[in-house]
Design brief:
It contains ten helices and eleven strands. The longest helix is centred in the first third of the chain and has 58 residues. The C terminus is likely disordered. The protein has a five-stranded mixed β-sheet. Strands 2-1-4-3 form a four-stranded antiparallel β-sheet, with helices on one face. A two-stranded antiparallel sheet has the order 5-7. Among the domains are: 71 residues, Helix Hairpins, CATH 1.10.287; 145 residues, Heat Shock Protein 90 (2-Layer Sandwich). By secondary structure, the chain is an alpha+beta fold. Helix 6 packs parallel to helix 10 and helix 8 runs antiparallel to helix 10. Its EC number is 2.7.13.3. It is a multi-pass membrane protein.
Amino acid sequence: MKLWRPGITGKLFLAIFATCILLLVTMHWAVRISFERGFIDYIKRGNEQRLQMLSDALSDQYELHGNWRFLRNNDRFIFQILRSFERDDEDHPHPGGPGPEPGPGPGMPPHGWRTQFWVVDQQQQVLVGPRAPVPPDGTRRAITVDGQRVGEVIASPVERLTRNTDINFDRQQRRTSWLIVALATLLAALATFPLARGLLAPVKRLVEGTHKLAAGDFSTRVAASSQDELGRLAQDFNQLASTLERNQQMRRDLMADISHELRTPLAVLRGELEAIQDGVRKFTPESVNSLQAEVGTLTKLVDDLHQLSMSDEGALAYQKAPLNLIPLVDMAAGAFRERFASRGLTLRVLLSESATVFGDGDRLMQLFNNLLENSLRYTDSGGHLLVTASLSAESVTLDFADSAPGVSDEQLARLCERFWRAEGSRNRASGGSGLGLAICQNIVTAHNGTLRATHSPYGGVSIKVELPLDRDMPRDA
């Protein structure tokens, strides 16, 4: 038989409900004990006061009559005295309790009394009182006349007679208090269940969303209905789902772009080889050069993909050391001057004397070569590229700003995406593999820097590379 195992809602409900029940039962017993003790103390104080008043009244009557003959078998007389006390209580209520109660029935104590009482003479003979034996542990008040004890007023113990005489009242109080506990328990259950469901509703939404996310549905989102910890967790979940969805789309786009990039040079190679094989084109040095150019294009694409994958995984070997960045930029610019001149472009470099960073010279040289190659490919003939360096207290910023053509704001935001090129035709004669800036982004990130693209004041694109300066602090290579 399968055992029932409560879910998180049931567990939270049971925890809160059990806590409420424990508090209710504890409060019930505490109130009961406090009531019983307070009630007995109240009766005891009232009886002691009445005993003293009755003792004083009987002393006056004994002094007036000279003996106890007036009282023997005269319960009516004693009740008249007690009624006079009650009239006084009505005119001057006792500060600790209620006014007079209904008259006594057969065998019951007089008005205002919660216990039985006896009046005895000097020989302990009962003058007034019930037929029950006088309790030896009762409360006693002496009746004195001219300093002589002539009798006593004795009341039964409050603790004993309260349980006997007021048993109905005690039972009623117990029933009422347990009824209150039952009603409070029902109210606690009615309030706890929706409370538990309400508290766990965001958790359930997160659980359902996690199941969908684990199943591959990256479009799932959960509602963040609050600003507490669960609300922030829901926001983080939505951000994670958005990131996974974006990465999935990028992966699909990457596969589509790779297949497209490989298809074009392979189609050219196949066409060239089929033409030579069919005799349409002769096997000449010019045809060999054409085939080699396509193979070189494929090799460059594969190399770029390899570099990008290694930089994504952090597998590129970085041999970092303090180095001056300015000579590296000068060296990279010098290697490109002739190529820029052959395209009718002007390359200008305005750099500071020194900018020491903690980095890998080979990878930084690769970064500068890629940025220069990008400007060389996409700048119109007759234009120019200006490379500048600016220093701040903590970093150095290199700016590669070229002339027209420019790009739109939407294109500017996508410049560092893989396989994306701003020119419309995907012709490799003017465009590269579309991976250069993505590799540059990874190299800059590995050096704790930032790379961003903005509009150039000369009508083209400005690539800004910001790297932290080395301050002779210990670094991990």
